[in-house]
Write a structure and sequence with these properties.
The chain is an alpha/beta fold. The protein has 11 helices and 15 strands. It has helices at residues 36-40, 49-60, 73-86, 117-129, 151-156, 169-174, 189-200, 223-234, 251-256, 268-271, 285-293; strands at 13-14, 31-34, 64-68, 94-96, 101-103, 109-112, 136-139, 144-146, 165-166, 179-183, 204-210, 213-218, 241-244, 259-263, 276-278. The protein has a 9-stranded mixed beta sheet with strand order 1-15-14-13-2-3-4-5-6, sandwiched between helices. It has a 6-stranded mixed beta sheet with strand order 9-8-7-10-12-11. Helix 5 links the parallel strand 8 and strand 9. The structure holds 6-O-phosphono-alpha-D-mannopyranose (M6P) and magnesium ion.
Length: 296
């Protein structure tokens, strides 16, 4: 990837195209929530040196840094665990599985929303009827599952390097699922998204969260629910929070938190929901946003 040198500061703009200026900020930033894929991670699923350094600087200034992702904790651990440790950051507190699991600063689950058994089975039977089962990865808290290994799943494993456990119908009945992920492509995404939205969106969140993936997770969960709980646990007002994200699973927190930034790589739908638009994830957006909002 050809990334912009992080030294040259890139602009953050509001909806009218005006440059963001720190002096216009009403409230000081005390806590920073960042999405992972498409935001803190570049297209190679890595945190750039600039992003990492700026996170560390912000932490050293006393700003709380919190990950808010669709990934489960074990996946965040496998992808950025080393970087996080190296810089003295922490994956706890954190918002995982799109808020279905949210940990406070002691590692307690302050939100814990599974997909109930009946709904899990309904999704399964519907997917079987529609021949979608081979494209699905089922997420528990500890690992991922699929019914077969195939090229679609292998391709997905370039994003989520964890190998899913192959299961049968019997085993499936007993596992506790937090998230259903369907791996699609440009051709079938919209069709399948419509199909599942029609069938399930009154019972469960159905969203195109990243690339051509659809994710389904508990109706009452989203990252903003996690943001509110974590702010509450620190006794920090939402007005002192800064959030950044690029996907459909970031919309609620981008709308709910007054200081919200999306990235130039986000879709128009997401851009509508954030107060500001920053550079792309391949141009160290997190680094630029932290420098714009906080005196580092
Ligand atoms: C990738 C995978 C998913 C994850 C999604 C969104 O597709 O890792 O498991 O849910 O990205 O992740 P994020 O919310 O961090 O953008
Ligand atoms: Mg994202």
């Amino acid at each position: 990837i050809t990334t912009n040198e992080g030294n040259k500061m890139l602009e953050i703009k509001d909806k009218n195209g005006e440059n963001f200026e720190k002096k216009k900020l009403n409230d000081e930033i005390k806590i920073f929530f960042t999405d992972l894929d498409g935001t803190l991670l570049n297209s190679e699923h890595k945190i750039s040196k600039f992003n990492l350094e700026s996170l560390k600087k912000a932490k050293d200034k006393g700003i709380k840094i919190v990950i808010a992702t669709g990934r489960p904790l074990f996946s965040a651990e496998s992808i950025i665990g080393e970087d996080i440790k190296k810089t003295n950051l922490s994956l706890i507190p954190g918002i995982y599985l799109n808020g279905c699991i949210t940990y406070d600063c002691n590692g307690n689950k302050i939100i814990n929303h599974i997909i109930n058994h009946k709904l899990k089975m309904e999704i399964y039977h519907f997917s079987k009827k529609e021949n979608i089962i081979p494209y699905i990865i089922w997420y528990s808290l500890e690992k991922t599952f699929s019914f077969s290994m195939n090229d679609v799943i292998k391709d997905y494993m370039t994003v989520e390097s964890i190998t899913p456990e192959i299961i049968d119908d019997n085993k499936f009945k007993d596992i506790i699922i937090y998230k259903v992920l369907i791996c699609l492509n440009q051709k079938n995404l919209n069709h399948v998204l419509k199909l599942y939205k029609n069938e399930f969106s009154h019972k469960i969140n159905v969203a195109n969260t990243f690339k051509t993936y659809i994710e389904m997770f508990h109706h009452n969960s989203n990252k903003f629910e996690g943001v509110k709980e974590i702010c509450k646990s620190y006794n920090i007002s939402i007005n002192n929070a800064l959030v950044i994200g690029d996907g459909e699973n970031d919309i609620e927190m981008l709308q709910g938190v007054p200081n919200s930034v999306t990235l130039s790589n986000a879709s128009d739908k997401v851009k509508e929901c954030a107060k500001y638009i920053g550079p792309s994830n391949d141009d160290n957006a997190v680094h630029h946003v932290l420098h714009a909002f906080i005196d580092l």
